[in-house]
Amino acid sequence: MSRGEVARRLLRLLRPLAPLMALSATARVINQGLAVAVPALAAALVVAVEPGDAVGSLLLILAGLALVKGSFRYVEQFTGHAVTFRLLSELRIEAYRNIVPLAPAGLDEDRSGDLVARVVGDIDRVEPFYAHTIAPLVSGVLVPLLAAVGLALWVDPLVAAAFLPFPLLIVVSAPWLGAGRVAELSARGRELGGDTAAGLTDVAQGLREIAAFEARDTVAAWIDDLSRRTAAARRSLARVSATRSGLGDLLAGAAVVAVTATSTYLLDSNVIGASGMAAAVVAAWVGTAPARALEGIVPDLEQALAAGTRLFHLADREPPVRPAELPVTVPAEGTLVFESVTVRFPGSGSAALDGIDLEIPGGSYVAVVGPSGSGKSTLVELPLRFRDPDKGKVQVGGVDVRNADPSALSDRIMLVPQRPEIFFGSLADNLLLADSGASASDLWEALDRAALGQWARSLPEGLSTPIGELGETLSGGQRQRLAIARAFLREPEILILDEATSELDAGTERKVLAEIARERGRRTVVVVAHRLDTVTDADEILVVDRGRLVERGRHDDLVEARGLYAGLWQRHLDVMPESA
Amino acid sequence: MATAASLPKRTSSLYTAGRVTLQASVVLGWGRALLGAGAALLIAESVDLTVGGGPSRAPLLWLAVLFAARAALSAVSPITDTATAVSVESDLRIRILDALLRIGPWSGRRTGETVTKATEGVEAVGGLAGTFLPQLITGMTIPLLLAVVVAIIDWPTGLVLLLVLPLIPLLLRLLERRFASVSGRYRETADQLAARFLDGIQGMRTLKTLDQADAYGDSLAEEAERLRGETMALLRVTQLALLAVDTLFTLGTVVAAAGAAMWRIQAGAISTGEAVSLVLLGVALIEPMSQIGRFFYVGAIGRAAAAQIEELLGQATADSPTPSRQTKDTPGLVEFDGVSFTYPGGIRALQAVTFRVEPGEKVALIGPSGAGKTTIAHIALGLLGPQEGAVAVGGPAVLVPQRPYLFHGSVADNLRLADPEATDSQLWVALEAADLAETVRSRLGGLDTQVGERGLQLSGGEVQRLAIARAFLVAAPVVVLDEPTSNVDLESEARLRSALDRLTAGRTLMVIAHRRSTVAGMDRALVLDRGRLVEAVEAGPS
């Protein structure tokens, strides 16, 4: 995407706000125009007063103009805030809607949660595109022009001609001086700055190792090295902005010299009066300021363009699954079929799932076990169509998920992940996500079944307690149980638990899983097991290793078989429960 | 022993490292103001000469010279400002590192959030020192300087300005306060929306699973609209302060100067040119102050960050535990004699624990979580000092943690943490012994490959073995191992076990054991419960 194209798309994003922006920019121009006019008028009046003149009314006029100037400042700031606020919320909602079709599999390629942080940061960097670049550009050019018009009308066109070239020269030269280098250096400076902050956080997390190996000096040298590199980039940047600010200041001074020389000449030739000269000199002194405000514009502009490029790339990304052309509804039955399913992640050598053939009858209780990284989660996410297999097909209730209506699919299947998300809002809000029509007693029943009822009753405001704000104070176990309560409310035909009880203590885990096992027969239950002893009574245990289904059967038979499952079982018995 | 607590809480300010360049920035600001004032005086002379008779070139030439000099000073300021920022930042980073090492996460203090905020806040403090402070100091002092210049032209006007001057810091305070309250409320609202937005993106998986993604988007838009309405209603009133301040700025400088000039010119006390220069000096008063206004946000963010960093540094100097242990001549001996330890906050971790581990002996520490196993390990490693009793360890002890931390850096960087002097071939020997050489050579492509949080990802088993390789690089007769419980696959687990066996062969081993089979392989097991040693079991080779 070219920079011009990015700028055009950014401007298009701003278009709905154009009237408000125009208002804000106009107020800014008037405020800054009066910042030139008031001192110029004051100087003219000061020179023009004769002994005995009543100066009170003149001062009152100046004071009145000061008040008008202040009012336009108010309008500018107020509308500016309005623009910023609207822009932020619109950019966010736009980004949110762009991400919906990509999630979750389409976002996996971005390492860890990087993408989310990036989107948030990029929006914050696009936002000043208006406040820090467009508005200053407008007033940086317009205010000196208006000042020149004023000088031409009320003093002399020659004075205006002496003044105008300098602010225009400032606008076209100073901000863009070494622009390419500035863009590159500020990008590098930001990157290094981020690295340095991350490096220090890194050190804080590895503190025990540093102390244990008495490696303070080694680590201090790492940090110093990062600091030095950051400092070098920023010093180069400072040299450029030093040149810019020197040049800007020089041109501003030159404007005053030129206007003083011209008006001295005109005064001497009796073309203008002393008050005209006074006004001209003062106007030249203050009239270049709006142009000089543009000196620092390039880094902001570059940041906005770079952030915009990334946001637009995200918006243009292909979703990982194509919506069905003629969506088919999914019958309310719990059969799950995998037909020679193969999944390969981009950039990874071996297949995550390799030719899985499997049929899970409706109402059965099935466990999936295997070493970490063996493909268990990938397998159980396929029915929900987080991604499509590269080969083979997945059927839910006899329908190929690629043809299924997504909303019908999510009615049939509920997946409880290992790290469920809690949202800003009350406990009830968080539960109602699963079934918006549930009554209070439904909610309590679900909480009780998920062994969370006692905790919920202890909350100060019960179901209305805002838990989103508790954020980190909610333990992993509480989050997991809340997600399971959601599952009880949802009543899907197929319930999938992906290590969904890993953070519960053994007693609670057993209680919750017993509640889930009671669903056996009524709905299909698939449990990706965290601890083997919790699933020994499953109808069938599927053992997955390196993307293949290597063993299947009941617990006793698998232990007997002395295969992979038997090894895992042996290790399970070895771990001492009290230190888990 | 002179405790750290007796030291003054703040030994030096956060900005010490940038003091000289900060002063230089302020002096440059004064210089610019004085040159500007000089220019105003020259313009006065030029006007008077022209009004009085023919124009003169001399003031114009000098005017050009003064402006050129001012531009030269302007071209130095960004350099001194940046120099201040980077020196303050570099210095703070090292001071934070030292503070962290003094506090130590093992001291039982919860510092996670403080640490994160402090490390992320370093640049904000740099901005405060490099951008905001010089502006603030010059902005507050320049009016005084200019009032003196005015007094030279006409002392009664100078007096008037001096009387008006105290108004300026007052106005600035008002502006800052308003800024703080408005931007505080505004930020709060914006943060709340940002949090909900983040919530939605991070929880997209759940939302999609529940078919709620679009509904959440709608509620997000609705909420944004509602909050926006509220905030704008609030701003409509509070921003009136800006109107007042902007108006008063103009009144207090330009209009006041014009009033004084009219009064004096009517009295015949000053010339036309001098009257013009008074207006110019009034204008010159505004500039440094509006600069301060422009950088208020830098100041506000910097101050918040500075407070967090001061808290962290202050914590370190207030009470830093001083690990103490004596190293005995018998290599490999570990002896605890009546050792007690209480964490800050009063949690008793160990009570009068006494045991002796002979050189080469292998001992398991077992007991429920919170029993004191980790505290014993940390004391044996010298990370913590006993508060009562005596500890003797024969020679350095090396740690193999349960979840080893991998620093962002190369494989070699991570290994050389243990021995900065180690040669490449020594690193390979250690990797070989830890059964990781092949992985580093083929999968990672050598010692210089970046690993860690933002580098190449290693599996749980590989990280464990890297920690073992690290331990091989230290000639330590005592190994302290916090046994990993992570669910690695069976093959990795077998490789890990044999690497550990090689590491501990011939050394004293203290292991925080989580497995029955580990305990069975030890000479002895020390059973802990609530900080007490409840029994020592002869496990015996099975």
Secondary structure: elements and pairs:
The complex is a heterodimer of chains A (580) and B (542).
Chain A: H1 3-14, H2 18-48, H3 55-99, H4 105-108, H5 114-126, H6 128-154, H7 157-163, H8 165-173, H9 179-205, H10 207-212, H11 216-268, H12 274-287, H13 289-292, H14 297-316, E1 336-343, E2 353-360, E3 365-369, H15 376-381, E4 391-396, E5 399-400, H16 406-412, E6 413-416, H17 427-432, H18 440-449, H19 453-458, H20 476-490, E7 494-498, H21 506-517, E8 524-528, E9 540-545, E10 548-553, H22 555-561, H23 564-574
Parallel strand pairs in A: 3-8, 3-9, 6-7, 7-8
Antiparallel strand pairs in A: 1-2, 1-4, 4-5, 9-10
Chain B: H1 19-52, H2 57-74, H3 77-103, H4 112-153, H5 155-164, H6 167-202, H7 204-209, H8 213-238, H9 240-266, H10 272-294, H11 296-318, E1 326-327, E2 334-343, E3 347-357, E4 362-366, H12 373-381, E5 388-393, E6 397-400, E7 409-410, H13 411-416, H14 424-433, H15 437-443, E8 450-451, H16 460-472, E9 478-482, H17 490-504, E10 508-512, H18 516-520, E11 524-529, E12 532-538
Parallel strand pairs in B: 1-5, 4-10, 4-11, 6-9, 9-10
Antiparallel strand pairs in B: 2-3, 2-5, 7-8, 11-12
By oligomeric state, this entry counts as heterodimer
> Which CATH class of the largest domain in chain B is shown?
Mainly Alpha
| Domain module count of chain A | 2
Question: Which sequence of strands runs across the widest sheet of chain A?
Answer: 6-7-8-3-9-10
What would you say the CATH architecture of the largest domain in chain A is? Up-down Bundle
Q: Biggest interface, which chains?
A: A-B, 149 and 152 residues
Mean pLDDT of chain A: 89
Report how far apart the termini of chain B are.
Answer: 48 Å
CATH homologous superfamily classification of the largest domain in chain B: ABC transporter type 1, transmembrane domain
Low-confidence stretches of chain B: 1-11
The helix-strand sequence of chain B is HHHHHHHHHHHEEEEHEEEHHHEHEHEHEE
How many strands, what sense, and barrel or not for the largest sheet of chain B? 6 strands, mixed
Named CATH topology of the largest domain in chain A: ABC transporter transmembrane region fold
How large is the radius of gyration of chain A? 35 Å
Strand order of the largest sheet of chain B: 6-9-10-4-11-12
Helix/strand class of chain A? alpha/beta
* Principal-axes shape call of chain A: elongated
